[in-house]
From TrEMBL:
<feature type="domain" description="Cytochrome c">
    <location>
        <begin position="134"/>
        <end position="235"/>
    </location>
</feature>
<protein>
    <submittedName>
        <fullName>C-type cytochrome</fullName>
    </submittedName>
</protein>
<keyword id="KW-0249">Electron transport</keyword>
<dbReference type="InterPro" id="IPR024167">
    <property type="entry name" value="Cytochrome_c4-like"/>
</dbReference>
<dbReference type="Pfam" id="PF00034">
    <property type="entry name" value="Cytochrom_C"/>
</dbReference>
<keyword id="KW-0349">Heme</keyword>
<dbReference type="InterPro" id="IPR009056">
    <property type="entry name" value="Cyt_c-like_dom"/>
</dbReference>
<keyword id="KW-0479">Metal-binding</keyword>
<feature type="signal peptide">
    <location>
        <begin position="1"/>
        <end position="22"/>
    </location>
</feature>
<feature type="domain" description="Cytochrome c">
    <location>
        <begin position="48"/>
        <end position="126"/>
    </location>
</feature>
<dbReference type="InterPro" id="IPR050597">
    <property type="entry name" value="Cytochrome_c_Oxidase_Subunit"/>
</dbReference>
<dbReference type="InterPro" id="IPR036909">
    <property type="entry name" value="Cyt_c-like_dom_sf"/>
</dbReference>
<keyword id="KW-0408">Iron</keyword>
<keyword id="KW-0574">Periplasm</keyword>
<keyword id="KW-0732">Signal</keyword>
<keyword id="KW-0813">Transport</keyword>
Length: 235
């Protein structure tokens, strides 16, 4: 597979998002507007006060651990995620675009500065130590090459060849379209399975990234989801 293949998938998927969002624009005669979809493709990088963020983590520690590595497999690791990704998730929990029995209530009391500061703090922490993974597994194949015959794109096209997500450049300019995609490597299989299932069902739908994932998840069987989750959690 050439380096052009992942980029081609990104371009195709992002084009699909544009069409999906445009197609859902409310008609002039419609009285109630549909839920808005946040377009993250030209989002400016998030910055905040990491020290202030560290001071706000008392409640976060109970689930996400003292160093941003989750204490149970149903919670995500936060350490090493990009600040932009983390901010978007907190904002969606805060605004009700993404719902969770715990996080909805926790985020409701946060100010915008709190969310920026927390995101910046967790972005400074070292991610969970990498595992080895099985490069010959079905999950590895799906992650690296996808399955063109079934219309499955390679996950690395957006999440990076090392599974570490984007590496945003340090400037105030808009980031690449994939700059708000998450670091997946080392996340628990249980958490990843739940998120892929939510994307497949359309439960997560608040932004343009989610629209990309809706299309991707629809191409995945339950066995594919299990294979990807097992590979990423061991990698």
């Amino acid at each position: 597979m050439t380096h052009r293949t992942p980029l081609l998938w990104v371009c195709l998927l992002m084009s699909t998002v544009v069409l999906d969002v445009a197609a859902e624009a409310p008609a002039a005669s419609t009285s109630a507007a549909p839920p808005s979809v946040q377009d993250l493709r030209r989002m400016h990088p998030i910055s905040g006060d990491a020290k202030a963020g560290a001071a706000k983590t008392a409640v976060c520690l109970a689930c996400h651990g003292p160093q941003g590595v989750a204490i149970a497999p149903n919670f995500p690791h936060l350490a090493g995620q990009s600040a932009s990704y983390l901010y978007v998730q907190l904002k969606e929990f805060h605004d009700g675009q993404r719902k969770d029995p715990v996080m909805t209530g926790q985020a409701a009391t946060l100010t915008d500065d709190d969310m920026r500061n927390l995101a910046s703090y967790y972005a400074t922490l070292p991610p969970k130590p990498a595992g080895k993974g099985d490069a010959s597994s079905r999950g590895a194949q799906l992650y690296r090459a996808g399955d063109p015959a079934r219309g499955i794109p390679p996950c690395q096209a957006c999440h990076g060849p090392a599974g570490l997500g984007p590496q945003p450049h340090p400037s105030a300019a808009p980031q690449p379209p994939w700059a708000t995609f998450p670091h997946l490597r080392g996340q628990s299989g249980l958490y990843l399975t739940k998120q892929l299932g939510d994307f497949k069902r359309g439960t997560r739908a608040g932004n343009s990234n989610a629209r990309v994932m809706h299309g991707v998840a629809q191409t995945l069987s339950d066995d594919d989801i299990q294979a990807l989750s097992a590979y990423l959690s061991s990698w």
